[in-house]
Amino acid sequence: MSETAPQYFKDIEACVDAILDKVGNRIVLGLPLGLGKPVILANALYQRAKKKSDISLKIVTALSLEKPTGKSKLETNFLEPFVEREFAGVPDLDYVLDLRAGKMPKNIEVQEFFFKAGSYLHSPSQQQNYVSSNYTHAARDLMLSGVNVVAQMVAKKDIDGKTFYSFSCNPDLSIDLVPMLREKEQKGDPVAIVGEVNRNLPFMHNHAVFQAESADMIIDNPEYDYALFGAPSMAISPTDHMIGFHASTLIKDGGTLQVGIGSLGSALVSSCVLRHKNNSAYRELAEELELSEKFPILHDWGGLGTFEEGLYGCSEMLVDGFMHLYHAGILKREVYDDTQLQELLNRRAITQNVSLETLDILAEEGLINAKLRSRDVQYLKQYGILKESVEYKGGALLIEGQPVPTELNDIETRKQLSEHGLGACLKGGVLAHGGFFLGPKEFYRHLQNLTEEEHQKFCMTSVNFINHLYDHPFGRQDLKRAQRKDARFVNSAMMVTLNGGAVSDGLSDGRVVSGVGGQYNFVAMAHELSDARSILKLKSTRVSGGQTLSNIVFNYGHITIPRHLRDIVVTEYGIADLLGKSDKDVYIELIKVSDSRFQDQLLEQAKKIGKVPADYELPLKYRQNTPEKIQQLYRKYNGMGYFQPFPFDCSFTDDELRLGKALKSLKAKTATKLGLIKCLLKAMTIKSVPAELEPLMHRMKLNAPSDFKEKLEQRMLAGELMNAGMSGVSVARPTQHHGVNH
Fold first, then answer.
1. DSSP result, 574-628
2. For range 647-663, the mean pLDDT
3. What predicted TM-score, i.e. pTM, was given to this entire model?
4. d(Cα 5, Cα 2) in Å, to the nearest integer?
5. Which of 440, 436, 426 shows the shortest CA–CA distance to 459?
6. Radius of gyration (Cα) for the chain, nearest Å?
7. Quick one: which of 453, 508, 393 has its CA closest to 206?
8. What are the DSSP calls for 327-388, one per residue?
9. In this predicted structure, what is the pLDDT of residue 737?
10. What are the CA-CA distances from residue 107 to residues 28, 48, 96, 185, 339 (Å)?
11. Residues 644, 274: contact at Cβ < 8 Å?
12. Do residues 481 and 528 lie in contact, with contact meaning Cβ atoms separated by under 8 Å?
């Protein structure tokens, strides 16, 4: 808490002056991961340091968001109109633009602990400045870096005549950093905690709320209410959908879900909605895939039924999928901040519906006294078991003003409680805990449109609460264990080695693709909870330089998740259950779910070093893992209205969907010299562009080619569109936000 009332600023430059006056010319600026960066202030501080070389500015952050740009002229022509439309009013981060342009001044440094995947693979400065850190240790590492200014975009709201602020999208580190900085300040080191108000930011309640006195400075000017950065939903491929489907069979009704970002996370959510809303089709596909016969893990750890009890979300990133699960009636298992109460719910000794039996069981279990006392009444009112109107006064219960004995076995007391004193159901429950959120613009609208009652059920909080089990101001280990029953922590990997190690954040040459983030935290936590499982989703293959490669590999020179933490790996071909297995069985389990084009090679390598018996033969039922089979299944169920590329929100126009698919295909085909030559030769055979493709050519600025190169590009694109039969084919779009299309 600041010793004085915060300073309020309408002018950003005046705030920069105040920060420099308070902490001096050496600034170590801590900014939130992702959406919560205060762009106006960050840019003003950065520009001030660019102009004045005597200012030392070190920016410590993660996931600096930037608008998409094309790597070729075709990509640029496709993206520019889309970016202008979808990112209208969203300001750029100046330091990111200069990093990309190689114009970073010597007195400024940017240090990150998590990159947008692949964004800085070819940036020596960012590779050198990367900090490898578990997400739960990020606040500690920020302090070790010497951070003395923490700034964040915040939401603002008047509640009962008093102004409150909310960390909103990023309480993940801020909740922990503020007291750390105040402790640093007490030791004589000046610090500045700054909030930049943006009225477009959803006001999140619960742990995210703070009072103005917690900050040193607040920037509040409606002119600075810029549009939020929305990450458009990406298309879910057939492979993604099959991975999501397999993973969804492991989600247990009444359990806990953590899900990662991207199309694989969306695919999992889509299949969960299918499982709940169209269970007959869901089971039909499961039977067609022979899941129960091929993967016995489903019998003990999974499920194919609807979500009657529902799920509770506990995820460092609150993705838009949780909103879709909520509106589909799946995210509905509420958890409570009382361990014993939560354990009674887990055992089904009580339900959320309140009755006299609820009181009796609470008394039997020792949560309240059979002869109610004042603190018992307060406890019961806190959780909605008693109505707010019930009072404890003068050694009696007052129910609608009528005094009755406090003994729960008293006949009159029970009558009055039953008729006038009991609440309808438990209150104060939380459906999802999240550390930060980022997603499509539609997701932010969903959050803005939640009612006050609904808002209380979504709790943005510290990453230390979510990502591990140890004690924390907001919850003890026993409470977290009670809340997180049947947890499934679902993340993604780039590669998996045959001994069960996972590659998720970097390459064998040492370059960082993204970062560890919270993945290690969740994998380790799954091993600490007796009924939890870690699930790593993996595309079985990738295409590099026009060549198809297996993502299940014999070994690799970099590992994110060590083999001793191996658990479940899911590919489009099935489920590899590695927990507690011998090396022989782990190798075999992973070969079972690898692409059949690589199974013989992997098996030969395993046999060569003696990890698999020389006479072992992979059963025939696991040797049908082909892209053709995936496409066959996909076409069947896609034709029935399931597994759409965009099952929820879509930011692209129909023309953009057609063009995007054609451009992606063309890029893959021209990745090799031979492929490029074939495409060029085909382009030369096209004498003119069909009339029905003219609008698409106009959209790509290729309607009037200015030179031979542009004419070739026009004909290559037209050829791809015609080859795909896209000149007259419509692209399925979402018909509803909260279910599967029909």
1. EEEE-TT--HHHHHHHHHHTS-HHHHHHHHHHHHHTTSS-TT----GGGS---HH
2. 91
3. 0.93
4. 7
5. 436
6. 28
7. 453
8. HTT-B---B-S-HHHHHHHHTTSS-SB--HHHHHHHHHTTSS-SB--HHHHHHHHHTTSB-T
9. 38
10. 12, 11, 15, 25, 51
11. no
12. no
Whole-number Å distance between alpha carbons of 551 and 259: 21
Residues near 58 by beta carbon (within 8 Å), at least 6 away in sequence: 27, 28, 29, 108, 109, 110, 111, 145, 146
**Rounded to an integer, what distance in angstroms lies between the CA atom of residue 636 and that of residue 639?**
5
Per DSSP bridges, beta strands 568-571 and 533-537 are: parallel
In this structure, are strands 495-497 and 547-550 parallel, antiparallel, or unpaired?
unpaired
Distance in angstroms (rounded) separating the CA atoms of residues 32 and 460: 14
- Number of helical H runs and strand E runs in the chain: 29, 25
pLDDT in tens, 372-423: 999 999 999 999 999 999 999 989 999 998 999 999 999 999 999 999 999 9
Phi, then psi, of 32 in degrees rounded to 5: -65, 160
| pLDDT, tens only, 514-552 | 999 999 999 999 999 999 999 999 999 999 888 999 999
Task: Catalogue all structural domains in the chain, each as residue range(s) with its CATH number.
Answer: 7-224 (3.40.1080.10), 238-335+431-627 (3.40.1080.20), 339-421 (no CATH), 654-723 (no CATH)
> How far apart are the C-alpha atoms of 136 and 145, rounded to whole Å?
16
Structural contact between residues 294 and 574, judged by C-beta atoms closer than 8 angstroms: yes
* Tokens of residue 151, six digits: 């700034």
Amino acid at 99: L
The residue among 493, 433, 439, 488 whose CA lies nearest residue 264 is 493
Tokens at residue 557, please? 């020179």
Measured CA to CA, the distance from residue 341 to residue 327 in angstroms comes to 26
Q: Distance between CA atoms of 329 and 272, rounded to whole angstroms?
A: 11
Angstrom distance (rounded) from CA 46 to CA 39: 10
What's the token pair of residue 246?
């397999």
Helix H, strand E, coil C: the string for 257-293 is EEECCCHHHHHHHHHHHHHHHCHHHHHHHHHHCCHHH
Rounded CA-CA distance 136/457 in Å is 24
Crossing angle between the packed helical segments 627-639 and 238-248, to the nearest 10 degrees? 80
